[in-house]
Amino acid sequence: MASKAEQRREEILARAREMGLASVDDLASRFGVTASTIRRDLALLSRSGRLARTYGGAIAPGGPTETSLLQREHESFDAKSAIARWAAEQVRPGESILLDAGSTVALLARRLPALEGVGVTTASVPVINLLRSRPDLALTCLGGRLRELSAAFVGPLTELTLERLTFDRLFLGTDGVGVDGSICEAELDQTRLKELMARRSRCVYVLAHSAKLGHAPFNSWARLDGPWTLVTDDGADPDFLDAFRATGRDVVITATAERART
Fold it and tell me: Which band of pLDDT confidence, cut at 50, 70 and 90, is reported for residue 69?
């Protein structure tokens, strides 16, 4: 017969497979044990190759693979459009704007209003293509290593340019948002770039539709140490939002067109 510890580890593994992320604090509360006990469980499962460690928890190997930007364009389109619309309304005349990669950020680029003196900087190829013919915008393109799946530049050359610039507003995309305020991406180059972007920006917004909240498809994480605002849609889990707000960060909820019709 399996011991209590073995049963607990099997359930941890099952939850990680089902939910993507197994948070140390959540697991400790669920099983009525200390966080250090959970960390030992995760370390054992990691050494055996059954889990991969992440910031604050673990992810089950063999999970979702990264899809291309083209494949993601029409996923949760109504929610992304509502988020992008709200984000575009925040831009003011004369501001310097930094746009990250991602399908929601590309929708934001489509909706940027014609305002006097706005400068836009981006490493995203789709955003560059969308804005290159806008005479009302001063467009700065960040170079570097082209990452095909995200259609954006990353790496040391991109980072070197960013270190010489500052911005009024940053709009970030992400593959997942942790309840502790961490954001998930497929590669460390992406998370490092997002952290640097946030450090160089006065106001930071993370654009993430509700399916990405509490979701961790990959094991690379960015920590945004300063204040930032999560912009999501009205399908977000209230429990997640309550726990997220408890970290001291702000949340904006946008209304999707699909729900507005029902």
Answer: very low
Among 15, 30, 59, the domain-final residue is: 59
Strands 96-99 and 57-59: unpaired
160: left (phi over 0), alpha (psi -120 to 50) or beta: alpha
Final residue in a domain of this structure, among 59, 86, 102: 59
Is the CB of residue 168 less than 8 Å from the CB of residue 95? yes
Domain enclosing residue 196, as ranges: 69-260
Count of domains observed in the chain? 2
Q: Whole-model pTM?
A: 0.72
Is the model's pLDDT at 124 over the cut of 60? yes
CA distances from 71 to 58, 64, 83, 103, 198 (A): 26, 14, 19, 10, 27
Q: Which residue has the tokens 């999707």?
A: 256
Q: At what angle do helices 103-111 and 77-88 cross, to 10 degrees?
A: 50
Q: Are residues 90 and 202 in the same domain?
A: yes
Separation between Cα atoms, residue 88 and residue 74, nearest integer Å: 19
Return d(Cα 60, Cα 52) in angstroms, integer. Answer: 6
Half-sphere CA count of 23, side-chain side, radius 13 A: 15
Residues 48 and 115 in one domain: no
Residue 195 lies in a domain: yes
